[in-house]
């Protein structure tokens, strides 16, 4: 009985199976991670192309709600052609000019470089309050500067097992384009009102 163990220890048949069993999980993890990464890059490139096309279309088709909705639908369709269960959301904001993309000007009465209550400010977006970002949440009108963003969320096609909640199976991507609307009409310029409150 003692002579059988050394003979078994010298037997190399089946050693490859053990080595393969040790390497297979690592190989599969690397392979599926690579698939997920490549798919994410592909979805991001499709999303970026769709958003750039939407920007070109929006500059030409004007800011009517029907044209904005149609372009939202086009972006969603382009992304869902690649990832059918993706959640696609859109947002847009506009400014009257590039120089309006800054905090609203205010009179710094006490010289602390902060807007304090009671100091007068120029209400650029006409909402009655001082804003660090005087944005209007529409596609804008003729000659307006528009920032269009699309967000995509989907579950990984090859989900990995979350380790202590560190890894998530949800992927969130976004793409943004900035454009100036065509001057097919007259830009609505409302005078800036100074508010002291």
UniProtKB/TrEMBL annotation:
InterPro entries linked to this entry: TadE-like_dom
Residue spans crossing the bilayer: 20-43
Keywords on record: Membrane, Transmembrane, Transmembrane helix
Residue stretches making up the TadE-like domain: 14-56
Name this polypeptide is given: TadE-like domain-containing protein
Organism: Sphingomonas ginsenosidimutans
């Amino acid at each position: 009985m003692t002579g059988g163990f050394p003979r078994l220890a010298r037997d190399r048949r089946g050693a490859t199976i053990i080595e393969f069993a040790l390497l297979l999980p690592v190989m599969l993890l690397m392979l599926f991670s690579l698939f997920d990464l490549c798919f994410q890059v592909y979805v991001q490139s499709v999303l970026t192309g769709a958003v750039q096309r939407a920007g070109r279309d929006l500059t030409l088709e004007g800011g009517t709600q029907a044209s904005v909705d149609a372009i939202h639908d086009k972006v969603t369709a382009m992304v869902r052609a690649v990832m059918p269960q993706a959640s696609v959301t859109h947002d847009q904001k506009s400014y009257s000019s590039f120089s309006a993309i800054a905090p609203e000007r205010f009179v710094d009465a006490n010289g602390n470089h902060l807007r304090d209550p009671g100091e007068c400010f120029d209400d650029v977006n006409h909402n009655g309050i001082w804003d660090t970002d005087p944005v209007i949440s529409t596609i804008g009108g003729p000659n307006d500067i528009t920032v269009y963003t699309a967000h995509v969320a989907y579950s990984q096609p090859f989900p990995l097992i979350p380790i202590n909640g560190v890894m998530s199976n949800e992927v969130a991507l976004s793409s943004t384009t900035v454009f100036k609307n065509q001057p097919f009409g007259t830009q609505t310029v409302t005078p800036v009102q100074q508010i002291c409150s």
